[in-house]
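Figure 2 data, in text form.
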Amino acid sequence: ISTDIVQEFGAYCTLYRHKESGAELLSVSTDDDNKCFGITFRTPPTDSTGVPHILEHSVLCGSRKYKTKDPFVQLLQGSLQTFLNAFTYPDRTCYVVASQNTKDFYNLINVYADAVFHPRATSDPMVHAQEGWHLELEKMEEPLTYKGVVYNEMKGVYSSPDSLMQRDAQQSIFPDNTYGVDSGGSPVEIPNLSFEQFAEFHQKFYHPGNSRIFFAGDDDVAKRLEIMDEYLKDFGPSPESKPASTIQWQKKTFDAPKKIRNPYPAGNDQPETHMIMVNWLVNDMPFTPVEEITVTILDHLLMGTSSSILYKTLMESGLGESITGGGLMSELMQGSFSVGLKGVKPEDVDKVEELIISTLQKVVDEGFTEDAIAASMNTIEFDMREFNTGSFPKGLSLMLGSMREWIYDRSPTDALRFEEPLAELKESISESGSKVFQDMVKEFLLENTHRSTLEMYPSKTLEEEVLQEEKDRLAKIKESMSEEELQKIIDTTVELKKLQAAEDAPEARATIPSLELSDLKREVTEYPIAVSENEAESGVTVVRHELGSTSGIAYANLAVDVSGIALEDVPLLPLFTRMMLETGAGEYDSVALSRRIGTHTGGVSASALIAGVNEDGGTEGTVSSGEHFVTKLLITGKATSDKTDELFSIFDLILRDANLDAKSKIIEILKQAKSQKESTVQGSGHATANSRIRSRYNVVGYINEKMSGLESLDTVKQLLNQAENDFPALLARLENIRNTILESSTCRDGMILDLTGDAAVFEKIQPSVENFLSKLPGDANAGKLQDFYSAPHPWVAQIKEEMAASAPVADEGFVVPTQVSYVGKGGRLYDIGEAASGSSAVV
């Protein structure tokens, strides 16, 4: 159809249409060996039975060519995949794989393509029963129950107040199109989905004519087309597929803002606080590229950092504990903007909405300052140019980026461009300053009456009511059934469990492709590392990783030893590291510091690092005692090579002079942390259980539990009480942490400066590095810390005493207001000193 070069990413793009089936395929050629393939279908639901979500699970349960019950389990056992997943959006379903091994990549593509086009699920009702829902009964006298993978998953989602709020907010502003229902599925509605409706949905929307196929990487383009033709040639045209899946625009139809009140589940010991969120439907026609990048910058100005005006005003108001709603949501056809607070007193609910509106009015009246605009512009532009996708394949980010336009029948490559609209926005700012943002706030938010205010109030009986409604519904169903029908359910229950427990036949397993040893590269990819101890007589170890190209960007990590801190103060480290960036430092208040970071760097963060190390003299491959580890405060940042002086200056500033005497900000941070931890326990109980189990067997696990696990929730509550009622004592603890880690006689020995860049970057930043090292706190020629590789960490003895006294290996249970139970079980596989082969990691 077309060829294009997206200069921003050095991507050569060709858009094809398959002649017979009508499928569209975007082939992106780059020099990236992490090859990526994805296939996306537009799948707009008309109800909340969760059919797109259930289908996403179900197509991966065997197919025409790949006969096992779960081909991907077997595939992963012999795959080198770097990404393998599927996602259900409110209006589309994506299947994505990536691998650096070409044969493995082709294997993954074949299994995925056969799965989506020829799944076993559409002809075998047992798949729908297993992945979606089914009635379960083992004995005639027992009550009926609902079971199913997606059904149980969504019961967990619907137990989370945050998830309920996000769902209700979206549905409140999209009453007339597909975004007004839940594509994931409501537990009340999922049992209304029949197998016939399920199969029909696949037939309607999983035709190639309704697909968008994506390739990116350094693999052969002709081979891409050849592989896909093997699947697409089975299909003729389907003129109705695309029109049937077209997403209808939600028009702005509200004459006045709407108010909605819904309950959320709360435990008996939880405070009766409310949640409130104000939501806007931002646009009811496509944004221009300039409008799209402008609204992105505006969102950052309003909500992007803790010093952004709307975020800061809400958090400092004292009306609630933490922010809810992330601001702009732009991944669907229409954008929405949501913001509010959790932990609000009933009498303050209306005040939150009034504060949001008045703050936006202030923005319209006064605009944004020049330095605020510069900081947000630099932050967003840096991110776009850097294109740092972290552990995710770059091809995946290109696919998701292109899909924001392509899935709505617009240009996939236009979605990836930013140079021209960014230049146009910069010109507009140079001519009229903040006006472009003020006008946008006025038009899309303040004067936009298509708005809802959602208040969620606590109900200590909601969970019980929901469960009772389900029991009553099931009891009625059972009463209406004959003995013969009930026996059929018993028989089906037995059959399904038998199928789930059965091993795949050898001939079925033989259909799954795998790699041979000869397909693997014998050479291990080595990443350069150069260690310079006591560099420039500074007493600091500098580690460098020289890469081929980092686009002129220097990446820096400064690690400072914290082993001298008292164990009882270790749980304060998460608070301490947040304060380094959120309370101001030196002559800079919190806003000025945030803007300095945003204007001159690509971001700065601080965190605590606890990492196990191998004991000197220990035998490789044996289970260690866990007593040897390093503990660091880690300051991380990145900047272009001409800005590294600024970056290192900020490192030094927040390390030495972060404002610790900030009572109101500390209380705000702790309230936010408390709210977030409570939400995590309720919505991610499996992670909570995992952390708890690990803490019973391992010293590092015990520390992590104290800092971020269930125990940390009690700690945060205690710290909040201390901050409110005895702040001088808390301040003294925080100041002692800083004084301890900056102890002049040892701090230089515990410092590591880790740098990543290309040769040109390293050459250019060397004077900045030397200047930074010379000015760091501490004496370069003073004492040494202990060797953590040969002696146990100084916290170990006290931790072992605490573990023996208060962390026994015993079964535990915690009552949480949720519709599903989270269960974890764990124990040692190997004793200390026992050899563990590499195969244990594979198993």
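Caption note: The mean pLDDT is 92.
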